[in-house]
Design a protein that fits this description.
The protein has about 325 residues and is an all-beta fold. Helices cover about 0% and strands about 55% of the residues. The chain has no helices and 28 strands. The strands form seven sheets. A four-stranded antiparallel beta sheet has the order 1-28-27-26, with no helix packed on it. A four-stranded antiparallel beta sheet has the order 2-3-4-5, with no helix packed on it.
């Protein structure tokens, strides 16, 4: 059954532009043969009210854990590290903050150029924070020191979207002109350029097996690429406005998209068809993310609400 499982109205006092969902192990590492550590679902949201909020989700209920208030202009990107123990947030105030999700304490601030860090993500090993820039450069910052260590040149325009493959081998960047650049992380060399979209790229997502890349654009279309060969496998249509977010399910068989048309859509990879549309939001849906099992989706919107959906698996 596709259904709304939980709705948090007025989760922020202004538009919510970004979210992420992770799971953190709580407590000490278990001794051999001992009880496994408790796991806790951590959800994060970033809003145009300058707020970053950390939530816990248990038994169908959302609880606010931390309210992080160090940004001075709208928060446009939030992302959790793979183990969900760290959170990075970027804002129109030019700062990237790295936080401890357990304590809510700030670990580091990275000063970036004006409007540069439109999107941030952790490298799979959580040693680097990767951000796009206004000039088309992709910056690699050390999480430990906050220093800029590498810079990739997309030879393109303002980078709006980034994704790194789960195996850590490839990085994709999407620009305001619709061009997607794919780099080899190890060599820092550009491997492919994908030119299927004619309008800004809002979101990119690699499949869990690192074989495919999803792209969402202002042209209203989603494209699916075989990334090794840079071949277009499908163009998916169904949204009636900008596609703002795409994300793969952990099962590699489904993905979710969200749009300016106020909808959240769940798609099946094998048929390349939309299997369900949620129309619960009353405004643009900026971001949607799966939980670890792939049986829940979180979406956030300009309507200031967070919604968690139940998804059949």
């Amino acid at each position: 059954m596709f259904s709304v499982q939980c709705k948090k109205e007025g989760a922020h006092s202004d538009s919510i532009w970004s979210c992420d969902w992770g799971r953190v192990s709580v407590g000490d590492e278990p001794e051999e043969g001992g009880e496994p550590a408790e796991e806790l679902d951590i959800l994060v949201t970033g809003g145009i009210d300058d707020m970053v909020k950390v939530w816990t989700y248990k038994d169908g209920e959302l609880s606010l854990r931390h309210k992080l208030t160090d940004h001075s202009l709208g928060v446009v990107s939030v992302v959790l590290s793979r183990d969900a123990k760290m959170l990075a947030s970027s804002s129109l105030d030019s700062a990237i903050h790295i936080w401890n999700t357990e304590t809510g304490s700030k670990l580091r601030t990275i000063e970036n150029g004006p409007v540069d860090a439109w999107t941030v993500l952790f490298s799979p090993d959580s040693k680097h924070l990767i951000s796009g820039s206004h000039s088309g450069k992709v910056n690699f910052f050390s999480v430990e020191t906050g220093k800029l260590e590498e810079q990739l040149d997309t030879k393109g325009k303002f980078t709006l979207a980034l994704a790194v493959s789960p195996d850590g081998i490839l990085l994709a960047s999407g620009a305001i002109d619709g061009i997607i650049a794919v780099f080899e992380v190890q060599t820092k060399k550009m491997k492919h350029t994908l030119e299927g979209h004619a309008m800004p790229i809002r979101s990119l997502a690699f499949s869990p097996d690192s074989q495919k890349l999803l792209t969402g654009s202002d042209d209203g279309h989603i494209k699916l690429y075989d990334i090794a060969n840079a071949t277009l496998l499908a163009t998916l249509s169904g949204h009636t406005s900008w596609v703002l977010s795409v994300a793969f399910s952990p099962d590699n068989e489904h993905f979710v998209s969200s749009s300016s048309d106020h909808s959240v859509k769940v798609w099946e990879m094998s048929t390349r068809q939309c299997v369900h549309t949620f129309s619960e939001h009353s405004d643009q849906v900026w971001s949607a993310r799966y939980n670890k099992e792939g049986n829940r989706i979180l979406s956030v919107s300009d309507d200031k609400n967070m919604i968690i959906y139940s998804i059949p698996v």
